[in-house]
């Protein structure tokens, strides 16, 4: 008899499995229909021995000390501040738009103050701000909107920004300084040995059993359990009684090139040319030394795995119907990005899972991560050590160690 059947071994399911097992001494069965743990954050060494993210680049960033401290029990970190360039007007410029972006595009040498005035002169205030187009045009004007946002959004969503909720681009970070970091969160780091290793450490508990390649419906009726935690698609759980919740999908095209570096930045966005939206080069993210390099192209698709809920008011209305069903289903807890039909970052899903655990156990949220915790053994590697040239081939060693462990 298991206390909990957890459906999905991504962030939501794995955090809850770890908390219930280590924090409450519960017996947990976690099932995933994919052949691996980690959900969309799954990473692995490809045939060339390069660490890649199967489902697109996953960059960890958070302002939550609690979330960062909690995950730090299961991984060491590599300090990493993400940087993105956009291919616009035949050149690569920093994204989000900053002083260097504007000076490069307009071949000027503006100061911060001059840039602020310039952007203000371009902005076209709109009232009310309802759509994504309104958000961007009212902040930076039509010209920059068309260069950076319009076509990227059309590719990504197959919708014009004028048809998308303001929430999709609710904040357009425009910097009048030269800060070219993509994120500004307090904690920005990548798991030193990858996400999958971190998940292995989370789920490494005698009370946790894992079944992969298994849809939860295959075990219902065979394996007794008291309660379920469901992190899959909420509409699928209820057999699509109200219809399908719309998602946008992606096709990932992975390539390995026989050259140490493919592009000058971790991610290059292509707002206007090509059918893909961006290319990611993984070695920037992982810090791996390797004579070859692996990249991934992202091609937006209408069909395929559900990745991005389509943020339109009618879809929220449809979700509300499913939520009402979910709320009235006893002994099943719905958590995570698919079960709550919302785009969440990894830290937000971790926080959501810790909150659910606190609620289930009648604890204060601040206690949820602590009870039954093993002390934090693992800490951040100081940036100076990690950023120095690697004395050894991290890929070779890690791959060999991983293989040896799995044998
Ligand atoms: C392209 C892309 C890039 C992203 N980049 C970032 C980033 O840079 N930073 C960031 O913080 N976040 C990023 N995210 C978001 C991140 O992927 C999510 O926050 C995280 O994966 C959510 O975890 P989850 O557990 O809710 O869902 P998932 O990781 O999707 O896990 C759910 C699991 O449930 C399983 N499942 C579903 N139905 C069943 C069933 N019937 N039976 C058994 N198993 C089932 C699935 O196979 C899946 O493994 C990105 C997302 C995408 C799509």
Explain this structure to me?
- The protein is α/β, with parallel strands linked by helices.
- Among the domains are: 2-55 and 192-245 and 309-406, Rossmann fold; 97-169, protoporphyrinogen ix oxidase, domain 3 (Orthogonal Bundle).
- It has helices at 11-24, 65-71, 99-106, 112-122, 132-157, 195-203, 216-219, 234-237, 282-286, 313-327, 346-361, 365-368, 383-387, 394-406, and strands spanning 2-7, 28-31, 43-45, 51-53, 61-62, 77-79, 84-88, 91-95, 187-191, 208-211, 225-230, 247-257, 267-269, 278-281, 293-301, 308-309, 332-334.
- Strand 3 and strand 4 (51-53) form a beta hairpin.
- Helix 1 (11-24) runs parallel beside helix 11 and helix 4 crosses helix 5 (132-157).
- It starts with a strand and ends with a helix.
- The structure holds flavin-adenine dinucleotide.
- Flavin-adenine dinucleotide binds at residues 7-13, 31-34, 39-41, 55-59, 215-216, 231-232, 250, 307, 336-338, 344-347, 349.
Topology:
Elements: E1 2-7, H1 11-24, E2 28-31, E3 43-45, E4 51-53, E5 61-62, H2 65-71, E6 77-79, E7 84-88, E8 91-95, H3 99-106, H4 112-122, H5 132-157, E9 187-191, H6 195-203, E10 208-211, H7 216-219, E11 225-230, H8 234-237, E12 247-257, E13 267-269, E14 278-281, H9 282-286, E15 293-301, E16 308-309, H10 313-327, E17 332-334, H11 346-361, H12 365-368, H13 383-387, H14 394-406
Parallel strand pairs: 1-2, 1-11, 2-10, 7-13, 11-17
Antiparallel strand pairs: 3-4, 5-9, 6-9, 7-8, 12-15, 12-16, 13-14, 14-15
Helix pairs in contact: 1-11, 4-5
The structure holds flavin-adenine dinucleotide (FAD).
Flavin-adenine dinucleotide binds at residues 7-13, 31-34, 39-41, 55-59, 215-216, 231-232, 250, 307, 336-338, 344-347, 349.
């Amino acid at each position: 008899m298991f206390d909990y059947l957890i459906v999905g071994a991504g962030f939501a399911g794995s955090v809850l499995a770890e908390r219930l097992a280590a924090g409450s001494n519960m017996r947990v069965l976690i099932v995933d229909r994919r052949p691996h743990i980690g959900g969309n954050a799954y990473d692995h060494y490809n045939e060339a021995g390069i660490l890649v993210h199967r489902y697109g680049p996953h960059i960890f960033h958070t302002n939550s000390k609690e979330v960062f401290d909690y995950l730090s029990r299961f991984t060491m970190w590599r300090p990493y501040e993400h940087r993105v360039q956009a291919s616009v007007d035949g050149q690569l410029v920093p994204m989000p738009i900053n002083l260097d972006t504007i000076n490069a595009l307009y071949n000027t040498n503006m100061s911060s103050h001059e840039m602020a005035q310039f952007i203000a002169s371009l902005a076209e205030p709109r009232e009310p701000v309802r759509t994504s187009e309104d958000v961007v045009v009212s902040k930076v004007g039509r010209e920059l909107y068309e260069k950076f946002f319009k076509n990227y959004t059309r590719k990504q969503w197959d919708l014009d920004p004028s048809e998308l909720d303001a929430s999709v681009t609710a904040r357009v970070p425009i910097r009048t300084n030269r800060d070219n970091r993509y994120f500004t969160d307090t904690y920005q780091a990548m798991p030193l040995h990858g996400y999958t290793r971190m998940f292995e450490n989370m789920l490494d508990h005698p009370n946790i059993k894992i079944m992969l390649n298994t849809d939860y419906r295959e075990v219902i009726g065979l394996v007794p359990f008291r309660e379920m935690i469901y992190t899959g698609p909420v509409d699928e759980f209820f057999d699509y009684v109200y219809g399908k919740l719309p998602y946008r999908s992606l096709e990932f095209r992975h390539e390995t090139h026989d050259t140490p570096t493919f592009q000058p930045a971790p991610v290059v966005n292509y707002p206007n040319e090509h059918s893909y939206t961006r290319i990611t080069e993984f070695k920037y993210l992982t810090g791996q030394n390797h004579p070859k390099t692996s990249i991934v192209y992202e091609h937006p698709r209408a069909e395929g795995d559900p990745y991005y809920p389509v943020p339109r008011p009618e879809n929220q209305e449809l979700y509300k119907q499913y939520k009402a069903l979910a709320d009235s289903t006893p002994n099943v807890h719905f958590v995570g990005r698919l079960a709550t039909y919302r785009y969440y970052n990894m830290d937000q899903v971790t926080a959501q899972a810790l909150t659910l655990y606190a609620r289930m156990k009648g604890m204060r949220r601040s206690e949820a991560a602590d009870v039954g915790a093993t002390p934090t053994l693992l800490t951040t590697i100081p940036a100076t050590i990690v950023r120095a040239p690697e004395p050894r081939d991290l890929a070779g060693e890690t791959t060999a160690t991983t293989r040896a462990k799995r044998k």
